Amino acid sequence: MHLEQINSPEDLKKLTIPELEQLAQEIRETIIDVVAGKTGGHFAPNLGTVELTLALHYVFDSPRDKIVWDVGHQAYPHKLVTGRRDRFHTIRQEGGLSGFLQREESEHDQFGAGHASTSISAALGMAVAGQLKGEHFHTVAVIGDGALTGGMAYEALNNAGSLQVPLIVVLNDNEMSIAPNVGALAKYLSRIRTNTRYTQAKAEIERLLRRLPQGDLWLELSHRFLDGLKEIVYQTMIWEELGFTYFGPVDGHNIRELIETFQLVKKIRGPVFVHAITVKGKGYQPAEDDPFKHHSASVKVPGAPPSPPKYQDVFGETLTRLAEEDKRIVAITAAMPDGTGLLPFAKAHPDRFFDVGIAEQHAVTFAAGLATQGLRPVAAIYSTFLQRAYDQVIHDVCIQNLPVVFAMDRAGLVGEDGRTHHGVFDFAYLRCIPNMVIMAPKDEDELRHMLKTAIDYERGPIALRYPRGSGVGVPLLGDPHPLPIGKGELLQEGDDVAIIAIGATVLPAQRAAEILAEAGVEATVINARFVKPLDEALILEAARRTGLVVTVEDAQVAGGFGSAVLELFAREELRIPVACLGLPDRFFDHASQASLRKQAGIDAESIARRALALVRQHRGVTPQLR
Ligand SMILES: Cc1ncc(C[n+]2csc(CCOP(=O)(O)OP(=O)(O)O)c2C)c(N)n1
Ligand SMILES: CC(=O)[C@@H](O)[C@H](O)COP(=O)(O)O
Ligand SMILES: [Mg+2]
Questions:
Q1: Which CATH number fits the domain 3-194+244-286, given the four candidates 2.10.109.10, 3.10.450.320, 3.30.450.20, 3.40.50.970?
Q2: In angstroms, rounded to a whole number, what is the distance separating the alpha carbons of residues 106 and 531?
Q3: Which residue, 5, 10, 193, 527, shows the most beta carbons closer than 10 Å to its own?
Q4: CA 264 to ligand 1 centroid distance, Å
Q5: Is 388 a catalytic residue?
Q6: Average pLDDT value for residue range 469-484
């Protein structure tokens, strides 16, 4: 067993190539055992990066040399060889290793990530810093072909090619994003991959040159010649045109070839682009056969009861049905066709479905363009990823008051993906934009009605946001119907305190009211439905009647729903005690959704406790919770 002896990348350097190959096998077995069998997590991407990781750590001296992984969902092998082997079984669990890279987790994690397409920019920054400080280290960005569809990657390539600093970009090309990779550039990569004329000629030239004295030097010089050859074969080579020296395609599972390539590349002074061909799911046949399905593994709890339908499935099916009648509806995803529940739509209405790649900014402005022509674009984007497109939301959609529907998935605390993926800023970042309407459903049935509301709303942009995972299990009866804009729902009346909740916190608020009732406290419970416009009449009536208010949201309190209620009270000069429950001013790490909601104090028991504390403090009574 070699893996047991690898406590840092230094230990790799003592191994021979056959030993490294054996180690690769052990790493694969560990990932299959732990991720597919115990913890769940990103699976096929990590099986594809094993040899790449070993070769990089063999050739470069991390942490002095900087290896920057894009997204970080494919960096489990990197974790295993950088001193975290013993904690690997805790990955994505509460208190355990993160599923992505975090600077505080290891000195080998050069840059925290979770969102795609940042690696080249960050690595370029490091390379430039090295130059400015007169420090000598190598900087390597490892980016997938999916992440390479993100605009930021091109902004960085554009900058790097002109700066001509030493920067190595390794493209981990497995022909897959989460779903099959899309776009003209994916087709271009595929042409390079399948064009064997250049690869064969290159291999032959390299073989001959290696035989010459000072073979490596000749090899380096030959790359100038090979550039010409490439241009003949491919007409133009985009990476070379951008100022990079191109190496590849190399077999991303051949450790010897990878090591030789990286050793060569190390000697080149300007920007270099290494194109490695990998297989997503490599070494585990079901994952190789269906890498889409095996992007992530989830572990089923034996004997668990069947879950209610997921919010995203209800969303996708409802939109598919609405689009049968309403030919204006167009669905857009930024590389998350499955996660957003849009696969049924893609199947039923292929001409009105657009996967634009990891390109949230483009997705939003593309939607704006569609809206100018009278269509009803629905941009289904995870709340956390819509952060990428903030200016597009303001500049391209809201200023022009275009009727774009934002279906913000994975709102609230998402669970095991952790701090980079929680969708908790959306109320705050959207609420301040003029023209925007914002809704959040209390359950999966209300989601259907909100979607219909959004589609029917002609007056401007409208957003609905809903959580990751299963709904609450309510029946989905009848056709979806529009809800009145800006109207909340009074769920129960009580005179001691008003609990005003939004979205996924409404049900816990109702449970909290039941707990309070047992202690003799009568609560009003309101499902606000709209963060903007607020149902001011309903909220003010309940606030004046009870004199005590608790707001609840699964989002940042600062700037969020609670803040909106406080602004209303300030404007109305209503001076009553208000407790705003929601996320405080800090980032939350990875854990189960239930645990995170408890930590944030937005589960039923916590809401009841806070409401009771308010009643005790301001009513001078001492009801007790049982
Ligand atoms: C800005 C952003 N949008 C969407 C995602 C979701 N996402 C995570 S990994 C991934 C696919 C990445 O593909 P690639 O870089 O080729 O890596 P692979 O999984 O194929 O190894 C996507 C779309 C993300 N992390 N960040
Ligand atoms: C790395 C990444 O961003 C995605 O793979 C993400 O983890 C998917 O999350 P869901 O499982 O919620 O779709
Ligand atoms: Mg890929």
A1: 3.40.50.970
A2: 40
A3: 527
A4: 29
A5: yes
A6: 96
What fold characterizes domain 490-619? Rossmann fold (3.40.50)
Contact 58, 115 (CB under 8 A): no
CB–CB of 496/546 below 8 Å?
yes
Q: Measure the CA–CA gap between 384 and 412, rounded to whole angstroms.
A: 9
SS3 470: strand
Separation CA 57–CA 12 (nearest Å): 7
Q: Evaluate whether ipTM surpasses 0.85.
A: yes
The CA-atom distances, in angstroms, between 38 and each of 3, 43, 206 are 19, 12, 45
Rounded distance between C-alpha atoms, residue 535 and residue 562, angstroms? 13
pTM over 0.90: yes
Q: What is the pLDDT of residues 249-288, one digit of tens each?
A: 999 999 999 999 999 999 998 999 999 999 999 999 999 9
What architecture does CATH give domain 311-467? 3-Layer(aba) Sandwich (3.40)
**Catalytic position from the list 388, 410, 452, 468:** 388
C-beta pairs of 26-30 under 8 Å, 24+ apart in sequence: 26/1, 26/2, 27/3, 27/53, 27/54, 27/77, 27/80, 27/81, 28/282, 28/283, 28/284, 30/3, 30/80, 30/88
222: pLDDT strictly greater than 80: no
Q: What is the H or E stretch that residue 315 is in?
A: helix 311-325
Longest dimension (CA), the chain: 93
Domains 3-194+244-286 and 311-467 share a fold: yes
| Ligand 1 neighbour 385 (Cβ under 6 A) | yes
Q: Near ion ligand 3, which residues have CB within 5 Å?
A: 144-146, 174, 176
Name the region of 262 (left: φ>0; alpha: ψ -120 to 50; beta: rest): alpha
Domain ranges, ordered by start, for the chain: 3-194+244-286, 311-467, 490-619
| Alpha carbon distance 503, 595 (integer Å) | 18
Locate the ligand 2 atom nearest the alpha carbon of residue 100 and give its number. Answer: 1
Query: Is the CB of residue 144 below 6 angstroms from any atom belonging to ligand 1?
Result: yes
- 168: β partners: 140, 272
Rounded Cα distance, 486 and 453, in Å:
11
Q: Cite the DSSP H helix spans in 105-150.
A: 119-133
> What is the Cβ-side half-sphere exposure of residue 624, based on CA atoms within 13 angstroms?
1
CB atoms within 10 A of CB 44: 29
CA distance 90 to 107: 19
CB contact set of 24 (below 8 Å; sequence gap of 6+): 50, 51, 54, 255
